[in-house]
């Protein structure tokens, strides 16, 4: 879900800094940081209209809203936002060492030095309620400068139902939000990887549709800030729920794997706008996604990655596939045991089909004997690598073929490269 950047701050609008996880620069300077959240910019509660808080509390009383206990308030925010509300502190971007508690806390998923202000929901410690985002995550509850008493009834209802669902798991409030303002809580997966409620998660996954819009949503849900690791990465809990509740979106997980090279790693040349701190972080994360593809029978995407970049397979073998047995079994059975060796590279393969008017083509061994056939329409891997790579089995005018675990030679006139 895309969050809008504001160029002006009006009245009591509270803005926070969100890391650009698409480009992926990670903030590693956290030596003096107890909690990865920040209160929005320089606007603690003493600069806001305290009367609005009183008005909100009075309104909630008219709805017979039950204020959550301290433990429920603390535990729900920890579960759904991955934030310890007790240790949250206010930190203006200009004073990195200042640590001070304030009543109003911007629920940013992580701390970042970026000066680009992004709006997040806000929690109020003493009175134990949350002001949610309202219009498709674009405007904040108080962004237009009005007082709470002047808001239309629907906006007040949203605040009530959001808190009633958030802290009391109220089914009626959940139904109201789904029908009236689903974007009010859709960002819970995108920003916080929240999947603790199957009814909620299934609704969000079904609502993202298909095509490019769906891919963008899956990218943001499956790849993002991981609170436990305190870094950008694969959110395994989200991927597991996609497989369980909306398996049609596994294809979109595959598209993330196919864009393996697009996820950058910090280097001397790339000291800004990177995604991962190390190659090992990236490879371990993607090995999990590759294992999911194997389990779901979507190995074509994996084959394409291996063929385009054999080093990926070699590095996975070096790390014993990070313990993912299905990925290991498939990869070794299909591609053999030998790890990638820069001094002795293995053949690079393309996907191909036959080009033969007979409807089939013979595949031969090094002596010229027919060992199997490939039929019209069947896809196979073919290598055009030269003698230096193929070795003694190289034959001029013939290309090396792998098909269903078998290997042999096929004349290049009978091959049509499809990628």
Please outline what is shown here.
The protein is of the alpha+beta class and 419 residues long. 37% of the residues lie in helices and 14% in strands. The strands form five sheets. The chain has a five-stranded antiparallel sheet, covered by helices on one side. Strands 2-4-5 form a three-stranded antiparallel sheet. The chain has a two-stranded antiparallel sheet with strand order 1-3.
Proportion of beta-strand residues: 5-15%
Cα-atom Rg, whole angstroms?
A: 27 Å
Strand segment count: 14
Q: What is the number of domains?
A: 3
Main sheet, how many strands, which sense, barrel?
Answer: 5 strands, antiparallel
**N- and C-termini, Cα separation:** 33 Å
Q: SSE order in H/E notation?
A: EHHEEEEHHHHHEEHHHHHHEEEEHEEE
Overall form: elongated
Strand order, largest beta sheet: 13-12-11-8-14
Fraction in helix: 25-40%
Describe the structure.
- The longest helix is centred in the last third of the chain and has 17 residues, at 279-295.
- This protein starts with 14 loop residues before the first strand and ends with a strand.
- Residues 1-48, 90-100 and 112-117 have low confidence and may be disordered.
- Helices cover 37% and strands 14% of the residues.
- Helix 7 (211-222) crosses helix 9 (250-258) and helix 11 (299-308) crosses helix 12.
- The protein has three domains: 1-181, no CATH class; 260-335, no CATH class; 349-417, Roll (SH3 type barrels).
- The protein is elongated, with a radius of gyration of 27 Å.
- It has 419 residues and is an alpha+beta fold.
- The chain is built from 14 helices and 14 strands.
- It has a five-stranded antiparallel beta sheet with strand order 13-12-11-8-14, with helices on one face.
- A hairpin with a 5-residue loop joins strand 9 and strand 10.
């Amino acid at each position: 879900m895309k969050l809008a950047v504001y160029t002006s701050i009006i009245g009591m609008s509270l803005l926070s800094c969100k890391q650009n996880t698409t480009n992926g620069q990670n903030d590693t300077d956290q030596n003096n940081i107890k909690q990865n959240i920040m209160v929005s910019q320089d606007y603690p509660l003493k600069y806001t209209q305290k009367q609005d808080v009183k008005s909100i509390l009075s309104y909630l009383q008219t709805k017979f809203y039950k204020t959550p206990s301290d433990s429920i308030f603390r535990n729900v925010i920890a579960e759904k936002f991955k934030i310890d509300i007790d240790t949250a502190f206010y930190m203006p971007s200009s004073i990195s060492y200042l640590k001070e508690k304030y009543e109003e806390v911007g629920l940013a998923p992580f701390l970042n030095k970026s000066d680009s202000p992004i709006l997040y929901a806000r929690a109020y410690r003493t009175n134990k309620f949350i002001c949610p985002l309202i219009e498709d995550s674009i405007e904040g509850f108080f962004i237009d400068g009005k007082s709470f008493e002047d808001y239309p009834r629907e906006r007040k209802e949203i605040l009530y139902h959001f808190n009633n669902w958030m802290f009391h798991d109220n089914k009626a409030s959940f139904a109201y939000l789904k029908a009236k303002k689903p974007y009010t809580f859709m960002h819970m997966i995108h920003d916080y990887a929240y999947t603790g409620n199957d009814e909620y998660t299934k609704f969000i996954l079904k609502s993202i549709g298909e095509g490019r819009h769906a891919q963008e949503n899956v990218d943001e849900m499956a790849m993002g800030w991981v609170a436990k690791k305190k870094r950008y990465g694969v959110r395994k809990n989200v991927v597991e729920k996609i497989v369980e509740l909306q398996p049609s979106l596994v294809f979109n997980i595959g598209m993330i794997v196919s864009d393996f090279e697009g996820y950058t790693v910090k280097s001397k040349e790339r000291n800004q706008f990177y995604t991962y701190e190390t190659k090992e972080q990236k490879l371990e994360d993607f090995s999990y996604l590759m294992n999911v593809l194997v389990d779901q029978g979507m190995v074509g995407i994996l084959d394409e990655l291996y063929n385009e970049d054999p080093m990926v397979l070699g590095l996975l073998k070096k790390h014993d596939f990070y313990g993912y047995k299905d990925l290991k079994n498939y990869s070794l059975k299909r591609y053999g045991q030998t790890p990638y060796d820069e001094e002795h590279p293995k053949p690079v393969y393309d996907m191909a089909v036959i080009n033969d008017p007979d409807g089939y083509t013979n595949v031969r061994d090094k002596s010229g004997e027919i060992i199997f056939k490939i039929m019209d329409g069947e896809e196979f891997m073919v290598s055009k690598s030269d003698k230096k790579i193929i070795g003694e089995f190289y034959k001029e005018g013939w290309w090396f073929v792998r098909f269903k675990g078998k290997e042999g030679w096929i004349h290049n006139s009978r091959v049509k490269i499809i990628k």
